[in-house]
Write a structure and sequence with these properties.
66% helix
């Protein structure tokens, strides 16, 4: 029994050492969903900003919380000095970038790019509640109400999404 506990603790510790950006990224995604900009900034301040995921969510929190922060186009973002090892369900490292790049493009009002990233993610990984919510927001910003309604209809089949649907369904009606 003790060996299993030590093995489990070693696996968690190794993951924290090898990929220290995973927990802060997940936490900042939840804080983004709640629009808790100060908590996102606090999480980033306790994390390593040289990782692109943490830096992107920190930039989002600054753009949303402070009006004087410029919305930098995605192709102008400086490269980060450290590689990340996020992958999608298929193990593809490249497509995992869509998770945070889509959020960044939405916050910086680069909706056409966010739309393309979201569509690519839908085609590659299939729908998830987070991605469907992103697509609803993007489609509404691009005035693609029919597509927004389609994503809302999928979300209606999921539990716990009633508040989101009630918020965005009126906007999606013609």
């Amino acid at each position: 029994m003790g060996f299993i506990l030590i093995l489990g603790a070693g696996a968690v510790g190794m993951n924290e050492w090898y990929r220290p950006y995973v927990r802060p990224t997940a936490k900042m995604q939840r804080e983004l969903e709640r629009q808790d900009w100060k908590s996102m900034q606090a999480t980033a301040s306790r994390s390593d900003l040289t990782y692109s995921t943490v830096a992107a969510y920190y930039a989002i929190s600054r753009m949303e919380d402070e009006n004087d922060v410029p919305k930098v186009p995605i192709d102008m973002l400086p490269p980060t000095s450290r590689p990340i090892y996020l992958h999608n369900r298929d193990g593809n490292l490249e497509n995992a970038r869509n998770y945070f790049l889509t959020d960044y493009c939405i916050a910086s009002e680069q909706y056409p790019i966010a739309y393309e990233l979201g569509k690519a993610d839908l085609n590659t990984n299939g729908p998830s509640p987070l991605l469907l919510k992103q697509m609803v927001r993007i489609c509404l910003a691009l005035h693609k109400k029919e597509e927004a309604r389609s994503h809302l209809n999928v979300l209606r089949t999921l539990p716990f999404e009633k508040d989101f649907i009630e918020t965005y369904a009126p906007e999606a009606q013609e």
